[in-house]
Amino acid sequence: MAREAAYRMSFDVAIGRVLGGMRFAFDFRAGAGLTAVLGPSGAGKTTLMDMIAGIGQPDSGRIAVGGRTLYDRAGGIAVPIEERRCGYIFQDGRLFPHLNVRDNLDYGARLAGGRIPPIGFDALVDLLGLRALLDRKPRTLSGGEARRVAIGRALLGCPAFLLMDEPLTGLDGEMKLDVIAMIAELRDRLPLPILLVSHDRDEVERLADNIVLVDEGAVIAAGEANAILSDLSLPLARAGDALVILKAAPVGYDADYDITTCRIGETFLQVPGRWDADPLVRLRIRAADVTLSKTETVDSALNHISARIVAAEHTRTAQMRVVLSLGDGEDGPRLLSSITRKSWDRLELAVGDGVEAAIKAAALAERRRG
To answer: How far apart are CA 171 and CA 79, in angstroms?
Structure first.
């Protein structure tokens, strides 16, 4: 139900602006969940966020979130920033240094104006792991702790949507993974559209339901995450460590082997670990972990699935990047495979061929709920 509600609260943006001699043109629509805006420094990501928040105003176009129009130049609509109900989480957190964590959170709650936040104070404190930090001042917090407090303050303000500007910048190791897991939990639990800006492809692959690629002030491509990740005309699918994201529904658990069977359409995958309590499991499957054959094979890989080749191209090395559609048709969920050109020729593969794709269960060990 939360995810269905989130679909109705997507971003619909078509705006233009000239700023500092640079022309910006952003045009995209995003569906349910977390939308990641990915691009290099200077691409205009923060400029886009500021215009959605109302900090900067476009010269033309329209912005709508959840069906609510926030800006429409032709219609004479420009909702003031304080009425947009935007939870803006800045890169530096911007906590009040003279207030402890509890008071910073309480400040956010006061901004709710009597509205009930999507999650209560105590539940949010526990979800974000802030209970032990409530009496501490911001200067005593680690970078990851400060980010969690900033996110909590924004949520207690009862926002209609969240904007996250590079929330993982400056974090590394376990601290970064902890914040990624926390953002993923919010994405899955709360019926809020989230727009997250990043220049880090790994962050986007771990978190995004939708991806918007930007460069030089314009949108290069936008769409559902797996469609963008598997499009050979775009850089993400051509990268050496390219991968796709598949969302699978657990349908059974084998305690003897500690393996969960997950379903994607009519395709079943064996995933290590117990995941049957989760409604969906988010699988990140690397192209390098998918091998192809034309006939049924017997080897150590647990996952042998039917697929059809829908696109392929040579890479700069002696490799082929192959786009697969799961199942017998061409409209199934996408999977990537990276095989040698020699193997491609030896198997006499071609676009349109039906193949067997093998994925070792161990390759599915890194996963996130989605």
So the answer is: 34
